[in-house]
Recover the amino acids of this structure.
């Protein structure tokens, strides 16, 4: 994020809504994310002229067309590189990158790794619907093994990639997770991502109503959400569950997180971990939480540890240190020259 | 021995040795010393792809050739007059090219049994009838060097590293060149290692003194090569990579834009990344990306945000960038794509030169995706061509492909320093905030150039969304309309083809504007074609030379011009790419002369082809 001059008048959701007809399938999770973004940007004091949305290819990547800001719908997988170039040209811009599980983790996995490693100050929203939508339903890097799809009629074989683990492994300094339908939770995550100086990575569990309907239902549906989602708050106990009596404890012997019930087997709240979003090891374990049937998925900010500077700022600091000290003419005329008269 | 000094018009010297023998350094220092005396020159660094190939092998031989003269020099010379061979492998790989009667300097100290075996000699060729054709100076340079530097206390291995300077001293003596520029350079380079500097200077002086005092055979002469009579001005030597980088910086300044270079290391293009990375004083931002695709995409992102995006690579990297180039064509963003061509296909010959990416430049990319293609003919020419690439990119809102090659990238020549203040600016004006009641349309075009107007983030009121999906001609919004796609495709072609009205007419380099035979070239074949045509004309043959800088679109008079000749011969370091394009565009019977050996053409080969054509 950048300190921008606040707009003269407070903008509204309308100001960020473009005149283009939204063309996602009816019932797509993307609608809610779009609305949430259009609603949140005015709250953040964002201006249209300083905001840029960059995307790759896929359903999610149509997002920029619907925002009345600057937008660049690029090519498959390459949004991180294009966004890096935008920031190198003008570090003052507020850049959001919209991608999906195929665009960001398959064809663009290399660029995703490096934009996170470099800590380019952009906000990355990865819509994870565990399927290729725009190409009509093939399995993706986040699909469960056994996914039956047009390209895998007998079921997919590849193991699943965990986006947050990938991000943290790549050196991301901000990683968060939210849900497309979590209209109260999502704005807070966007606000934190926007406020973070550096690359902020946000995985959004998103439903594809056509090719992978209800793929996240075992985590997100109302009936199970409280038992299957751990809503993280920095400095708060990791308590969850319909009765708010379940907690996450570190099993030191197994060096693993485990679910415990407060009030059972002598467990008290003191046994339950307190979230520390600056702890990388904890974030790594939280990223993987949810792999077992009794475990919740961690939601909110798993990790936030800003560096002293960000990539584009550091690049420009180097340039500014030398800028103007020598002209092109000085350079060309330096070294061994001779005169012909 | 007081040798007589013979005046020569020009000479070709080739230094050849093991990769670790420092031949490139020796050559470039000889070049500096020669350039400072005002001779014209052309150099050809010819080295293996391996950084340190096994010592003593033929594939580990590294060579540096220089052609210099008191007249205009346009090629590196067909055949060396002097060959310095620092080991048997260097002799084996280079002797065949030495002019009959030429001078051969060999380090006998390196002619050990083992080195002879590695080079594939059963016994030493020195002193055998094989040498009868040449004047041979066989010296134990290794021993002489050890003797010369012993007072500086280096170990044997380090001391032997000075033998290239001993050899350079001898050759400088032979051509009556000054040692001072080399001494100054050594003292600067090894400022922190005084004993190394002193040893190298001692070796250099010893080699020079050897020439002056030793009883060399009476037939070994000293030569003098004078200054070339050329235009008055300040000169320096420049490599293609340097001139190209400086041209990009100048182009950015003339456009009033910051340059953002996205690049990924690749031979032989990396020196451009290195040079521009050292130019932060001019505000140039360089980005060593994770791969070729990210390199061009970052450059495109930078252009979207109002900088001048530039990307630089060689053939295989350019292939990877093609999809992104299509994006820049579709979104009509300025971009300069520099291709330092090398031998292909695939990894091909990374350190050898070729001009086989013309098809890739003109016809690459998916869909109908035209872009301007321009080529540079020599190291110094790179400066102007780079500026022109920047001008076309911003004026026409298009990616521009600049073709150079491995030969030009590494070769050096004297270059008259340009008057930077005299360069014509082409300042970019971004779209401004629209007036009350008006809206910004990113695809509103200039009526003459058909370039769209460039709105950039940060400016209120020009917010817009663009991408690789087809856009409506009228609004710039996404459009899948059939007629619209036809219109946009036609418009993209019309825009690029229209550049023909904004570039100079094709001129004839040498000869008549019509007649029997024209030799048509592009890129780095300029030198050999020029010399071959000159020689043919001196023999009374009717032949002209046309050299094409603008390869897409062609200058608007090119077709008519070429049709004025009975025959068209196209020498190319590829299997006939320009030939095909000329046939396609103009329905003329262009005949190919192809060489894909990874080496520049020899004058004599082009000359024989000219003779064959004329008498056919």
């Amino acid at each position: 994020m950048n300190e921008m001059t606040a707009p003269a008048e407070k903008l509204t959701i309308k100001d960020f809504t473009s005149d283009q007809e939204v063309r996602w399938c009816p019932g797509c999770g993307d609608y809610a994310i779009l609305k949430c973004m259009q609603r949140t940007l005015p709250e953040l004091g964002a201006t249209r002229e300083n905001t840029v949305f960059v995307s790759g290819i896929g359903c999610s990547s149509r997002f920029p067309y619907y925002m009345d800001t600057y937008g660049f719908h690029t090519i498959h997988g390459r949004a991180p590189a294009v966004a890096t170039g935008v920031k190198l040209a003008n570090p003052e811009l507020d850049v959001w990158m919209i991608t999906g599980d195929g665009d960001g983790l398959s064809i663009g996995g290399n660029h995703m790794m490096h934009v996170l490693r470099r800590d380019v100050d952009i906000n990355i929203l990865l819509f994870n619907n565990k399927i290729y939508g725009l190409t009509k339903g093939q399995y993706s890097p986040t699909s469960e093994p056994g996914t039956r799809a047009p390209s895998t009629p007998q079921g997919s074989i590849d193991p699943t990639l965990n986006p947050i683990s990938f991000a943290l492994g790549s050196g991301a300094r901000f990683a968060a997770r939210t849900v497309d339908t979590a209209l109260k939770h999502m704005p807070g995550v966007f606000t934190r991502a926007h406020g973070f100086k550096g690359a902020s990575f946000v995985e959004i569990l998103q439903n594809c109503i056509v090719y992978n309907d209800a793929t996240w239902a075992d985590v997100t549906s109302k009936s199970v959400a409280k038992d299957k989602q751990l809503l993280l708050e920095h400095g708060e106990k990791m308590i969850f569950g319909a009765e708010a009596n379940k907690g996450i404890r570190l099993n030191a012997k197994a060096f693993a997180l485990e679910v415990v019930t407060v009030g059972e087997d002598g467990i008290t709240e003191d046994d339950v971990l307190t979230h520390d979003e600056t702890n990388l090891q904890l974030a790594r374990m939280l990223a993987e939480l949810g792999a077992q049937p009794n475990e919740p998925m961690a939601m909110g900010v798993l990790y936030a540890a800003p560096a002293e500077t960000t990539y584009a700022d550091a690049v420009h600091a180097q340039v500014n240190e030398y800028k103007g000290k020598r002209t092109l003419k000085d350079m060309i005329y330096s070294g061994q020259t001779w005169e012909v008269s | 021995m007081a040798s007589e000094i013979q005046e020569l018009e020009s000479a070709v010297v080739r230094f050849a040795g093991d990769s670790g023998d420092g031949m490139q350094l020796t050559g470039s220092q000889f070049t500096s010393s020669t350039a400072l005396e005002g001779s014209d020159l052309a150099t050809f660094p010819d080295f293996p792809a391996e950084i340190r190939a096994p010592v003593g092998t033929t594939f580990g031989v590294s060579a540096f050739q220089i052609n210099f003269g008191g007249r205009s020099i346009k090629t590196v010379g067909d055949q060396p007059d002097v060959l310095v061979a620092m080991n048997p492998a260097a002799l084996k790989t280079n002797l065949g090219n030495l002019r009959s009667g030429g001078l051969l300097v060999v380090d006998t100290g390196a002619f050990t049994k083992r080195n002879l075996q590695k080079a594939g000699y059963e016994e030493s060729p020195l002193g055998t009838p094989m040498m009868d054709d040449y004047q041979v100076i066989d010296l134990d340079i290794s021993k002489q060097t050890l003797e010369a530097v012993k007072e500086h206390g280096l170990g044997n291995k380090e001391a032997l590293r000075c033998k290239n300077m001993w050899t350079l001293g001898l050759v400088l003596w032979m051509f009556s060149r000054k040692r001072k520029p080399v001494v100054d350079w050594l003292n600067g380079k090894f400022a922190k290692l005084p004993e190394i500097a002193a040893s190298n200077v001692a070796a250099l002086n010893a080699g020079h003194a050897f020439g002056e005092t030793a009883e060399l055979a009476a037939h070994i002469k000293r030569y003098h090569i004078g200054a070339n009579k050329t235009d008055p001005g300040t000169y320096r030597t420049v490599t293609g990579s340097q001139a190209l980088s400086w041209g990009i910086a100048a182009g950015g300044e003339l456009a009033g834009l910051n340059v953002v270079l996205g690049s990924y290391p690749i031979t032989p293009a990396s020196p451009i990344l290195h040079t521009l990375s050292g130019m932060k004083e001019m505000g140039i931002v360089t980005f060593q990306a994770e791969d070729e695709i990210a390199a061009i995409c970052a450059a495109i992102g930078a252009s979207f945000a109002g900088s001048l995006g530039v990307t630089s690579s060689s053939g295989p990297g350019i292939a990877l960038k093609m999809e992104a180039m299509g994006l820049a064509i579709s979104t009509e963003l300025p971009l300069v794509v520099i291709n330092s061509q090398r031998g292909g296909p695939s990894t091909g010959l990374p350190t050898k030169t070729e001009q086989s990416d013309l098809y890739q430049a003109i016809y690459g990319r998916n869909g109908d995706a035209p872009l301007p293609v321009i080529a540079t003919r020599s190291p110094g020419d790179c400066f102007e061509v780079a500026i022109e690439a920047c001008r076309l990119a911003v004026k026409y809102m298009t990616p521009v492909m600049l073709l150079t090659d491995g030969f030009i990238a590494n070769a050096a020549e004297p270059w008259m320093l340009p008057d930077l203040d005299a360069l014509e600016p082409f300042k970019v004006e971004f779209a401004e905030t629209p007036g009350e009641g008006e809206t910004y349309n990113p695809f509103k075009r200039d009526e003459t150039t058909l370039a769209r107007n460039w709105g950039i983030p940060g400016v209120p009121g020009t917010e817009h969304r663009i991408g690789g999906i087809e856009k409506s001609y009228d609004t710039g919004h996404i459009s899948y309309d059939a007629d619209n796609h036809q219109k946009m495709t036609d418009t993209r072609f019309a825009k690029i083809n229209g550049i023909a009205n904004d570039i100079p007419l094709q001129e004839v380099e040498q000869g008549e504007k019509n007649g029997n035979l024209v030799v048509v070239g592009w890129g780095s074949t300029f030198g050999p074609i020029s010399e071959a045509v000159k020689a043919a004309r001196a023999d009374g043959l009717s032949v002209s030379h046309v050299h094409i800088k603008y390869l897409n679109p062609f200058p608007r008079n090119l077709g008519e011009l070429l049709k004025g000749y009975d025959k068209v011969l196209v020498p190319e370091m590829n299997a006939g790419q320009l030939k095909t394009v000329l046939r396609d565009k103009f329905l003329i019977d262009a005949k190919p002369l192809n060489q894909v050996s990874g080496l520049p053409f020899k004058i004599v080969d082009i000359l024989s082809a000219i003779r064959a054509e004329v008498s056919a």
Chain A touches chain B through 63 residues (CB under 8 Å). Chain A is about 30% helix and 20% strand.
